[in-house]
Amino acid sequence: MGGHLNINHLMFLGQGALWTIGLSVIALIGGGIVGFVIALARISPLKSVRIASAVYVQLIQGTPLLVILFLGYFGLAAIGLKVSPLAAAGASLTLYVAAYLGEIWRGCIQSVPKPQWEAAEGLALSRTQRMMKVILPQAIRIATPPTVGFMVQIVKNTSLASVVGFVELMRSGQIVNNSLFEPFAIYAIIAVIYFAMCYPLSLFSQRLERRMGRGRSNLAPA
Amino acid sequence: MQQNPSSDSIVSLRDVQKSFGSLRVLDGVSFAVERGEVLALIGRSGSGKSTALRCIDRFEKVDGGEIVVCGHRVDRPDVDLRALRQDVGIVFQSYNLFPHLTIEQNITLAPCAVKGLAHSQAKDLARKVLAQVGLEEKLHAYPEQLSGGQQQRAAIARSLAMQPKVMLFDEVTSALDPELTAEVLKVIEQLAADGMTMVMVTHEMGFAKGIADRIVFMHRGKVHETGPASILTSPTTPELTQFVGTGNLKS
After folding, report:
1. What percent of chain A has pLDDT over 90?
2. Of A136, A188, B120, B237, which is the most buried if we count CB atoms within 10 A?
3. What is the value of pTM for the model shown?
4. d(CA A59, CA A69)
5. In 3-state terms, what secondary structure has residue A32?
6. Which residues of chain A have a CB within 8 Å of the CB of B113?
7. pLDDT tens column, A159-173
8. What was the pLDDT predicted at A76?
């Protein structure tokens, strides 16, 4: 590298962008799975489970992602576990995303009108059946727009993984800049790439919300 | 199960107490429903009639007294709720059909999930109960495509599909206009004619008079007056006199 911005630099940035997408997908899937468990735990009939999950959510939401990333990377190393930057970033983002998605989804589950629970109970469905067959299918419809909207946050937040040496879009930009010393131009390119990834998600979320708005009467308590 | 007070009773409440906070909603309520009987619970808003009905299916836990429904001791904490609710069907004021499922799926859900009915059998059953409420052609419609009266009839069909021993109706026509009310009441009348045991909370005095074997008039959390449907035309307490007086003006 060195000299002027050329196709190789752009290829390198493109590779970083792919890792940003990869890390986002890891965070979404990992955070989605853990977040689903958190959402269910938050409305568990067992008080201890409710409290434990609430504490988890509060702890994560009250800690900067940057700190969680450092704890994941250096903390695990300090106790003798050598983890790769990808594993540390993936695990940290999973914990982080789980707390937020868990709360979003809990709200969606609870926004299914209470008479729906009662009707399902009146038909002798078990708690699991009520959840799986009656409540969740309705909650998923409610949850889709805010979940897609939150994916924008995930994509942008993966940029923090650059601090543990994971070469995603932000880190690859820093590396290119170290050889070219054209920070404004390079970070402008990076901003455009982030925008190109996030804007379609935002649009999609808005469209889902509008479509939901039309079908709203469907879910309102009669 | 244990010490059923009256062996013929499908539902029996004895001295049932229930408070919401400091508000005493049920203050020693007792009544029984025999097999095949239609009992109408009437009274002003806030008299406790809906709460009494909901206690039968244990949507409310009682503070004291005894409730026996189809042999289940509903007042006990260890009552088998799923067994109870297979014996008891309940229909609500707001229909509460599942909006993400077709009418057929609404009906087949519980028989398949709870009773393990095969899918093909459940579909036959759905057709049968929908025919009972006159809605065969709505098998594949979604709830939102139906009128209020049709939704309520579908909700009744959904309950019937579980073949309950007793049906509870909680002000099932209160959200409907007179025309739609009539079509729902017709369905309930047919059920009564077929011998279904029913407990209904209703504001339709004319209907109660026509269909109920027995009337329970509730007032301030107590059973204030009870008797055959004729008590609506010749009440003995001033409260019921006043209540049917205002009710007749409406109908």
Report:
1. 81
2. A136
3. 0.86
4. 14
5. helix
6. 125, 129, 133
7. 999 999 899 999 999
8. 84
Confidence class of residue A210 from pLDDT cuts 50, 70 and 90? confident
Confirm or reject CATH 1.10.3720.10 for domain A7-219, answering yes or no: yes
Chain B CB contacts of A138 under 8 Å are: 98-100
Chain A nearest CA to B247, separation (Å):
25
Dihedral sign, Cα of residue A115, residue A120, residue A126, residue A129: negative
Contacts of A120 in chain B (CB under 8 A): 98
Cα B17 to Cα B224: distance, rounded to the nearest angstrom: 15
Please state the domain extents for chain A: 7-219
Angstrom distance (rounded) from CA B198 to CA B33 = 8
**pLDDT of B53:** 96
**C-alpha count within 13 angstroms, C-beta hemisphere, residue A166:** 31
Per CB-CB distance under 8 Å, the chain B contacts of A218 are 99, 144
- What is the bridge-based pairing of β-strands B222-227 and B38-43? unpaired
Q: How far is A118 from chain B (nearest CA, A)?
A: 8
Residue B215 belongs to what H/E stretch?
strand B214-219
Strand partners, A12: none
Mind listing the pLDDT tens digit for each residue in B220-246? 999 999 999 999 998 999 999 999 886
Task: Name the closest residue on chain A to residue B107, using Cα atoms.
Answer: A123
Nearest to B114 among A118, A119, A124 (CB): A124
Q: How far apart, in whole angstroms, are the C-alpha atoms of residue A2 and residue B196?
A: 88
Residues of B in contact with A125 (CB under 8 A): 109-110, 113-114
pLDDT band for A208, please (50, 70, 90 cuts): confident
Residues of A in CB contact (< 8 Å) with B are: 115-116, 118-126, 129, 133-134, 137-138, 141, 217-219, 221-222
Token pair for residue A153?
A: 């946050």
Beta carbons within 8 Å of A199's beta carbon, 6+ residues apart: none
| CA-based nearest distance B51→chain A, Å | 14
Chain segment B134-192, per-residue pLDDT in tens: 999 999 999 999 999 999 999 999 999 999 999 999 999 998 999 999 999 999 999 99
